[in-house]
Design goal:
With 187 residues, this protein is α/β, with parallel strands linked by helices. The protein has a single domain, classed as 3-Layer(aba) Sandwich (Rossmann fold), CATH 3.40.50. It has four helices and nine strands. The strands form two sheets. The protein has a six-stranded mixed β-sheet, with helices on both faces. α3 links the parallel β2 and β3. The longest helix is centred in the first third of the chain and has 19 residues. It is globular, with a radius of gyration of 16 Å. It starts with 6 loop residues before the first helix and ends in a 6-residue tail after the last strand. The mean pLDDT is 92. Bound molecules: inosinic acid and magnesium ion. The site of inosinic acid has 15 residues, from β5 and α4.
């Protein structure tokens, strides 16, 4: 990826907006209600996978009404440009024993499925009361490892996307919408 040195470099990377901030807000409202219905008053532990899911977590936790705690884990899938290398590393683990919790994973995007299948295996082995996965985005056409979220807010085609927590080279996480990344200028 060409280094971003100016506002012009930055702006040129946004090809088009795929999902507006209003569409995201409406989908999160709906997902919050689904979670409330699923747990029916039982307390939950929302676990956000950093860094990509931090924005989604902030909005989703305010859309649920069941008692909820929050936790964070950091998983890094190594990318060369916009292509996953297939190596997933847990760089920060949860700060508590999850055996007494209804765990809800909050993820930004499921792409190859490697990150979440690794995390699911790891966390299920710790004996939570229940385990569900909510993802903002799903790119099913890219799956290399079988994995399905319980709730997926948007299914998108095979485009590399940025914004609302998702990055390219650590930039663009702060965009309030989801956009298609412009790969034309030397990646
Ligand atoms: P997976 O392990 O291939 O399913 O990928 C999961 C992680 O890769 C996500 O949590 C993202 O951090 C990253 N990722 C996958 N696709 C995209 C994309 O289109 N834009 C930005 N990050 C992505
Ligand atoms: Mg991520």
């Amino acid at each position: 990826m060409k280094e971003i040195r100016s506002q012009e470099d930055f702006d040129g990377r946004i090809k088009r907006i795929l999902i507006t901030k209003e569409e995201i807000a409406a989908a999160i409202e709906k997902a919050g209600k689904e979670i409330d219905k699923l747990y029916d008053g039982r307390p939950i532990l929302l676990v956000s996978i950093l860094k990509g899911a931090f924005v989604f977590m902030a909005d989703l936790c305010r859309a649920v009404s069941v008692p909820c705690e929050i936790g964070f884990m950091c998983a890094k899938s190594y990318y060369e440009g916009t292509v996953s290398s297939g190596v997933v590393k847990i760089t920060m683990d949860l700060d508590r024993d999850i055996s007494g919790y209804h765990v809800v994973i909050v993820e930004d995007i499921i792409d190859t499925g490697r990150t979440l299948s690794d995390i699911a295996r790891l966390l299920k082995a710790r004996d939570p009361l229940s385990f569900h996965v909510v993802t903002l985005l799903d790119k099913p056409s890219r799956r290399l490892v079988e994995f399905e979220a319980d709730i997926a807010l948007f299914t998108i085609p095979d485009h590399f996307v940025i914004g609302y927590g998702l990055d390219c080279g650590e930039y663009f996480r702060n965009l309030p919408y989801i956009a298609e990344y412009n790969e034309k200028e030397g990646n």
